[in-house]
Design a protein that fits this description.
A four-stranded mixed sheet has the order 1-2-3-4. Helices cover 41% and strands 9% of the residues. It has a single domain, classed as Adenine-specific Methyltransferase, domain 2 (Orthogonal Bundle), CATH 1.10.1020. The protein is globular and about 55 Å long. With 229 residues, it is an alpha/beta fold.
């Protein structure tokens, strides 16, 4: 069973992972990923250290944000839940709040119809402060095709998608947090050739010895996530 990226990123390599992993050696010391994207490949590779690069600076910031939050999943999910409530977004991983009337009227697009107003407010607020990675992550999750795109003015401009913060998203986040926690990971925002040389623009995060966490284990069991070790 493979780990799924919590970005569900366009061009995700999840469906071809079985073929990709067959060409990797059994033991890997340093894993270099010049085209990180959502991180599907590195999340399914065991190595002593990881050098991960992408030319999209916001994607690298999101990965760094999630890696840092692996130290305390509880705070992350509490903050995410507060934002979801503030913007009145659907969250089927906890409860189904979309009215049945809306589901009957918009059979194939009811999530988009329900989330549109709150999503647009979220997008407006994020564009006022692009350092808020909680808001950016939610924009990706609720956005069309879960894309990460900015216009020529530097504003995030993806419209709302017919998607939801569902159990798959929650479980993918749990998987991500468990995998990256205490790993030796270096993040790069540069060209692929620079990454291969161990370039100077790395944003580094070294693993630290910390006590084991128990809160997220309970949360995982209660929602039925099947975690991969």
């Amino acid at each position: 069973m493979f780990r799924r990226s919590p970005f569900f990123y366009v061009g995700d390599k999840f469906k071809i992972l079985d073929s990709v992993k067959k060409i990797f050696p059994l033991k890997i010391n340093k894993f270099i990923e010049p085209f990180l994207g959502g991180g599907t490949v590195f999340l399914n590779v065991i190595a002593n250290k990881y050098l991960l690069n992408d030319v999209n600076e916001y994607l690298i910031k999101l990965h760094k944000f999630l890696i840092e939050n692996s130290k305390n999943e509880t705070i992350f999910f509490n903050n995410i839940s507060k934002l979801i409530s503030r913007y009145k977004l659907s969250h089927s991983f906890l409860e189904d709040i979309v009215p049945i009337e809306l589901k009957n009227k918009y059979i194939k697009t009811y999530y988009a119809q329900y989330n549109k107003e709150g999503y647009n407010m979220l997008k407006t607020d994020y564009n006022k402060n692009k350092n808020d990675m909680y808001k950016l992550y939610l924009l990706v999750i609720y956005g069309f095709n879960r894309m990460l795109r900015y216009n020529s003015s530097g504003e995030y401009n993806i419209p709302v998608g017919n998607v939801d913060f569902n159990k798959n998203v929650y479980c993918a986040l749990i998987e991500y947090f468990r995998f990256v926690y205490n790993k030796n990971i270096s993040l790069y925002n540069s060209s692929a050739s620079t990454t291969a040389r161990g370039g100077p623009t790395a944003s580094r995060r070294r693993g630290a010895s910390t006590p084991p966490r128990t809160t997220a284990t309970t949360a995982t069991a209660s929602t039925g996530c099947s975690t991969t070790r």
